[in-house]
Amino acid sequence: ELRLAFSPKGDLGWEEIQAAWSQVAQLLLFIDLRQRDWRIIPLTPCAKLIHIKAVYNLGKDMVSMAKALKALASMLESSQSLPFPITRDSIGDVLIGQLPNSDHSSWSRFVHYLACNLQHLSDLAAEDRRTKIQG
Predict the structure, then answer these.
(1) How far apart are CA 78 and CA 81, in angstroms?
(2) Which of 13, 25, 40, 67 is most solvent-facing, going by the fewest CB within 10 Å?
(3) Are 75 and 83 in contact (CB under 8 A)?
(4) How far apart are CA 81 and CA 41, in angstroms?
């Protein structure tokens, strides 16, 4: 279970959030995702996804993460689409770049959509790896 964002209840610490994002970065490395605009640094306890073009705010960071996931989905060449579609600046019905910090409902939906897409991509990557090993 990946808990990727701070909870308004306060029951989720930064260490757990950082560990979850580290797992995301490790998944991207495991899949061997290579992008011109990205550098993945799988540091423990806090991995970094560095967008080579300057990114200065959380909304842009999340848009960049969505772009990386969309590229990963394309790379896996699956006939299955993501559970929550990713566009240039949204996942599902959430506009990522314009999320105010106080909109807990939208942030919760964003994290849910992101986690579902990550699980889907992880399953596809595992299946792709098994196919390559057996084939």
Answers:
(1) 7
(2) 13
(3) no
(4) 27
Taking the C-alpha atoms of residue 55 and residue 37, their distance in angstroms, rounded to an integer, is 11
What Cα–Cα distance (Å) separates residue 31 from each residue in 27, 28, 106, 116?
6, 5, 29, 17
Nearest CA to 75 out of 116, 27, 33, 36 is that of 33
- Give the amino acid at 33: L
Residue 29 maps to which CATH number? Answer: 1.10.418.40
7: left (phi over 0), alpha (psi -120 to 50) or beta: beta
- Domain residues for the domain of 28 are 14-134
Copy the structure tokens of residue 43.
């540091």
Alpha-carbon gap, residue 92 to 86, rounded angstroms: 6
Q: Is residue 90 part of a domain?
A: yes
Domain assignment of residue 1, yes or no: no
Supply the pTM of this predicted model.
Answer: 0.58
Task: Please write the tens of the pLDDT for every residue from 115-133.
Answer: 888 888 888 878 877 888 8
| Domain presence at residue 5 | no
Residue 109 lies in a domain: yes
Residue 89's DSSP bridge partners are none
